[in-house]
Amino acid sequence: MPAVMTSARTAAGGADVSVADSPLATFESLTQAAVIAVMGIAIVVSNLLIIAAFLNFKGLSNEVINYYLLSLAVADLLCGLFVVPLSVYPAITGRWMFGDLMCRLAGYVEVTLWSVSVYTFMWISVDRYLAVRKPLRYETVQTRTRSQCWMVFTWISAAMLCCPPLLGYKKEANFDKETFICMLDWGTTYAYTATLGILVLGPSVISIVYNYFYIFSMKRKLNSGAPIHDKEYATALAENLANPSHWMSFVLVSAFWLSWTPYVGVKLYEYFTDQEIKIPMLHFGVVWLGILNSFWKIVILISLSPQFRLALRILCLTACCRTKGRLQAELIGMDNDD
Q1: What is the dihedral of CA 285, 286, 292, 293, to 10 degrees?
Q2: What SS3 class is residue 15?
Q3: What 3-state DSSP class applies to 184?
């Protein structure tokens, strides 16, 4: 989750802010807490299913993109385990009771996991670009070992880039009493915030836009019947572009950015107008809509990835009857990983 400037918030170590005693306020608080709890359960369960399907089924290791999807699932699972649950009780009481250190730690985990997701989507777009740009040499250019190294580098670099506030560069952490999220407020550290934005958002957005523009341009060129003189290249390109992972990955990336667009729009409006929007539930809605993107991944994978549907089916068969699961894997020529 992006850590950006907040306003009219309560410091984690400051005065307690309790919800109003009116029945309406109590009902609203309980409803918000229930929504957060349900979202947390959905995020954890969905990403556990994704991880289990990837680890259970060897056939998914044949495509490099699946390692990136596994990294995304791990990041979203950690969000569901360590970020979302901390907001349930504060949603009922209206105050943060876990202390300033935990508030800073929660804010650090949020922005680190968000950075990992942004970087991973960039690598996914690069992987799809290479598959289209060099279809004949893709398997030698994008190896499983190389993709695993990129994921390790992504996690380490994101953790290091986001750690200065945790180590005391900016000690204050703000509890947002409207969204019930503890955020690192970097509004007064413009140099560091701008540097982080350039290092994380800059290359990621540029790469994603260029790579998918190239992919869909080539697809349009191929569908239009434009002549390609190298027949071997044309055949490999046509087979590659027929892979549903291109469209699936594009929908994943789009869903992520669309989920966070309302939040970014609200924050930019408040920053440039220097006034906070007073619409009830607006801040709660835009923040938790962004966090909800951690759940949409399984919906998109089930809808657009035949390979993942098969892996999920085999996982269910394996859980119910290991013999049936093994038989299903053997029927398609790929053994499940026991």
Answers
A1: 160
A2: coil
A3: strand
Under 8 Å between Cβ of 158 and 121: no
Task: Measure the CA–CA gap between 228 and 232, rounded to whole angstroms.
Answer: 10
Q: Where are the beta strands (DSSP E) in 71-225?
A: 173-176, 181-184
pLDDT at 166 over 70: no
Tokens found for residue 283? 């801040």
DSSP assignment letter at 165: T
Tokens representing residue 160 in the block: 């290091």
Q: Which two tokens stand for residue 319?
A: 């859980």
Q: Is the pLDDT of residue 90 over 60?
A: yes
Classified as helix, coil or strand, 182 is strand
In the chain the first and final C-alpha atoms are separated, in Å, by 35
Share of the chain above pLDDT 70, in %: 81
278-288 residues labelled b (16+ CB within 10 A) or e (exposed): eeeeebbbbbb
Q: State the pairing for strand pair 10-11/181-184.
A: unpaired
pLDDT digits (tens, 9 = 90+) for 303-325: 998 888 888 888 888 777 655 54
Burial class (CB in 10 A: 0-12, 13-18, 19+), 45: middle
Within 8 A by CB and 6+ apart from 43, the residues are 76, 77, 79, 80, 84, 291, 294, 295
pLDDT (tens digit, 9 = 90+) per residue, 203-223? 899 999 999 999 998 888 887
Q: Residue 335: which of 123, 120, 61 has the closest Cα? A: 61
Task: Reduce the DSSP state of residue 199 to 3 states and report it.
Answer: helix
CA distance linking residue 213 with residue 207, whole number of Å: 10
| Angle, alpha carbons 154-249-134 (nearest 5°) | 80
Residues 84, 113: Cα–Cα separation, whole Å: 13
Cα 263 to Cα 51, 87, 92, 251, 296, distances in angstroms: 28, 18, 23, 19, 17
* Token pair 């490099």: residue: 64
pTM for this entry:
0.84
Q: How many residues does the chain have?
A: 338
Query: Are 317 and 324 within 8 A, CB to CB?
Result: yes
